[in-house]
């Protein structure tokens, strides 16, 4: 399907502020970017680079006053996510080297916690297919964690979510990643646009490496849908922050849109 999507952020900048953004998706397997625009008002010079995860990043120095950052994209994406209930767990010694970083604990994903480990084993007991184990983890989170705005913050971790039993997409994803890594399944965070969401917003989900490829899962949804534009990959929210500011600024307004087009 073809999707038209974008996001607009309006900031009040109180002093010249260095900013790093991650707002331009790139063509990858299952995703072809037909059009891509990043518009700053007032105009500000941009320096672009590729980070260690292959994400396209932009550096800029925002001037004092109201500044608008607007990203627009038109992309051809898959109608559905790949599903393979037989996709097998890959022994660690056989994993590609670039997947190993997604096995380790990270800032928001305490996969080495005994609490996380015991829960993962409890959820997946008597399930032998790697894909079905991840499906069980995703379903457990969907059924036991409530989706609710305003109860978590930028420092909230996977362990915090187990206590709170509520959060938003980033929190669902951190918990899913932690549970998967605790049973040695490489898992990475993905951010981007999704067509089938109750509340349209920039969204986070996760992918796992099984049977020689990456598979997408979304614990917010009862069934993971297609129609996704990937912007960035990383170990957790630290790596996929779409806008990082190094100074005094205030977000005045934000809007996001995702539409299917002919």
TrEMBL record:
Domain of life of the native organism: Bacteria
UniProt xrefs under InterPro entries: Papain-like_cys_pep_sf (IPR038765), Transglutaminase-like (IPR002931)
Pfam families for the chain: Transglut_core (PF01841)
The Transglutaminase-like domain, residue ranges: 161-221
Gene3D superfamilies on file: 2.60.40.2250, 3.10.620.30
Protein name (Swiss-Prot/TrEMBL): Transglutaminase family protein
Source species of the chain: Flectobacillus roseus
Taxon lineage: Bacteria, Pseudomonadati, Bacteroidota, Cytophagia, Cytophagales
